[in-house]
């Protein structure tokens, strides 16, 4: 952790975000650029129609790919030294690779490094690979862990009846597990969408037309060569671009993450409220301090931390989604500076998910208080009673229940006296007389099953 870091992601929270560095650091960007340059060179060498570039041996291909495998911080600093002279980050990678093969059997092939490429051919593929790696291998597993944790709690508490609140006021009962399952179901839909997202790439030259490619080898099917190369990398081929890949797929990714973040934001705020109601208690950890002056407090800091980081993540992803889809004419360079902040957006989202997981693991359901509060609120049966009255043809059922319950404190005696005064068929009256606030939960417990069917 650096105490002089400008961003808390590289300072206070540095240790928590180590998993993201493989995908979103400047070192990662340089490594993926090296990978793309090498794979393009190998791809070209395999084409028998490019007579000036011989086919590589298995050992030579291994030698080149080991440059990626062994790419560490020292190697990245070598590129940075070259960049200090070139003032161009992708050109520095090209020169770096030429130096690496200068004393090898591949020395005569050096001018086919970066062949017919513009820097964006390398960058867009590097960023596509970074995003795919970061989302699928780092962000998604943590998001799935959080969803699985809340799913388990929803199943365990599916029958824990509690007072619902609409407009901040007591409402018809629900169960804790069903309310948790609502979030799980929403998350699951977004995860499914995120898992299906495509990561696009292009390798078609300075303005997207294969101009230089055709000038050098007019007889070659460059669209097919490019498509095969991009699909070999595990990306989806974009056939129509300017100098830059249009970044629409990036906006799709960012907007999907924002939706997932917003559901999580909704969740952590609700949990914060349930903690304030004391429906949830938090496990006390030895040595932990809730307040600097009030010793009794156990603050819901994980959920508050998550809320802040979710808002920050959303702000950045909204900005990037809007910015990256717009570029002047065939390109401007503003996307380059913007894309360097991808990791910041994921960093704040990752911190939020991690904090939420830690917070949920500290929760303990206060069933006694939940049951007591619900059991004492008899007026919430007003909905059930007026609905059965409608069924039985009673006049003005809503208005009569409104007069009985609105702004008043009703107990069991009040409610049952009212029920007994009604002209209802016997089975309906008996069912209402047996109804308790704690049993008026409809299908809530069984609805939880849908989060498991969605899997």
From TrEMBL:
Catalytic reaction list: (2S)-2-[5-amino-1-(5-phospho-beta-D-ribosyl)imidazole-4-carboxamido]succinate = 5-amino-1-(5-phospho-beta-D-ribosyl)imidazole-4-carboxamide + fumarate; N(6)-(1,2-dicarboxyethyl)-AMP = fumarate + AMP
GO biological process: 'de novo' AMP biosynthetic process; 'de novo' IMP biosynthetic process
Pathway: Purine metabolism; IMP biosynthesis via de novo pathway; 5-amino-1-(5-phospho-D-ribosyl)imidazole-4-carboxamide from 5-amino-1-(5-phospho-D-ribosyl)imidazole-4-carboxylate: step 2/2; Purine metabolism; AMP biosynthesis via de novo pathway; AMP from IMP: step 2/2
Enzyme's top EC category: lyase
Lyase among keywords: yes
EC numbers on record: 4.3.2.2
Domain spans labelled Fumarate lyase N-terminal: 11-306
Keywords noted in UniProt: Lyase, Purine biosynthesis
Entries under Pfam families matching the protein: ASL_C (PF08328), Lyase_1 (PF00206)
Keyword Lyase: yes
Boundaries of every Adenylosuccinate lyase PurB C-terminal domain copy: 327-441
GO molecular function, one term: N6-(1,2-dicarboxyethyl)AMP AMP-lyase (fumarate-forming) activity
Superkingdom as given in the UniProt entry: Bacteria
Its job: Catalyzes two reactions in de novo purine nucleotide biosynthesis. Catalyzes the breakdown of 5-aminoimidazole- (N-succinylocarboxamide) ribotide (SAICAR or 2-[5-amino-1-(5-phospho-beta-D-ribosyl)imidazole-4-carboxamido]succinate) to 5-aminoimidazole-4-carboxamide ribotide (AICAR or 5-amino-1-(5-phospho-beta-D-ribosyl)imidazole-4-carboxamide) and fumarate, and of adenylosuccinate (ADS or N(6)-(1,2-dicarboxyethyl)-AMP) to adenosine monophosphate (AMP) and fumarate.
Family note: Belongs to the lyase 1 family. Adenylosuccinate lyase subfamily.
NCBIfam families (UniProt xref): PRK09285.1, purB
The protein's name: Adenylosuccinate lyase
Species assigned in the record: Ktedonosporobacter rubrisoli
């Amino acid at each position: 952790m650096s105490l002089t870091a400008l961003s808390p992601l590289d300072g206070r929270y540095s240790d928590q975000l180590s998993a993201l560095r493989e995908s979103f650091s400047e070192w990662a960007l340089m490594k993926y650029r090296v990978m793309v340059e090498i794979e393009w060179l190998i791809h070209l060498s395999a084409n028998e129609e490019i007579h000036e570039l011989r086919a590589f041996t298995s050992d030579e291909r291994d030698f080149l790919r080991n440059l990626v495998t062994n790419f560490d911080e020292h190697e990245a600093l070598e590129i940075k030294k070259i960049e200090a002279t070139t003032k161009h980050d992708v050109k520095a990678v090209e020169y770096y690779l030429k130096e690496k093969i200068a004393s090898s059997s591949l020395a005569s092939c050096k001018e086919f490094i970066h062949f017919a490429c513009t820097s964006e051919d390398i960058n867009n593929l590097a960023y596509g690979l970074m995003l795919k790696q970061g989302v699928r291998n780092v962000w998604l597993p943590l998001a799935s862990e959080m969803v699985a944790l809340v799913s388990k709690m929803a199943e365990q508490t599916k029958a824990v009846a509690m007072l619902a609140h609409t407009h901040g006021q007591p409402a018809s009962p629900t169960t804790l597990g069903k309310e948790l399952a609502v979030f799980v179901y929403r998350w699951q839909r977004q995860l499914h969408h995120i898992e299906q997202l495509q990561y696009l790439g292009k390798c078609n030259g300075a303005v997207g037309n294969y101009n230089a490619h055709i000038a050098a080898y007019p007889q070659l099917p460059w669209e097919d060569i490019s498509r095969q190369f991009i699909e070999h990398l595990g990306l989806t081929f974009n056939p129509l671009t300017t100098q830059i890949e249009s970044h629409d797929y990036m906006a799709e990714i960012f907007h999907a993450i924002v939706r997932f973040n917003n559901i999580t934001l909704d969740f952590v705020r609700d949990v914060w409220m349930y903690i304030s109601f004391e429906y949830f208690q938090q496990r006390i950890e030895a040595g932990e301090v809730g307040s600097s002056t009030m010793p009794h407090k156990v603050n819901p800091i994980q959920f508050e931390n998550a809320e802040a980081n979710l808002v920050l993540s959303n702000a950045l992803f909204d900005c990037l989604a809007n910015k990256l889809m717009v570029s002047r004419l065939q390109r401007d360079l503003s996307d380059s500076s913007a894309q360097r902040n991808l990791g910041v957006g994921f960093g704040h989202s990752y911190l939020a998910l991690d904090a939420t997981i830690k917070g949920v693991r500290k929760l303990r359901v206060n069933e006694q208080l939940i049951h007591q509060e619900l059991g004492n609120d008899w007026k919430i049966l007003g909905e059930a009673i007026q609905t059965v009255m409608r069924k039985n043809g009673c006049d003005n059922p809503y208005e009569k229940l409104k007069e009985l319950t609105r702004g008043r404190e009703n107990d069991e005696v009040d409610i049952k006296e009212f029920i007994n005064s009604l002209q209802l068929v016997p089975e309906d009256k008996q069912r209402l007389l047996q109804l308790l606030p704690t049993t008026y939960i409809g299908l809530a417990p069984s609805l939880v099953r849908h989060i498991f069917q969605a899997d």
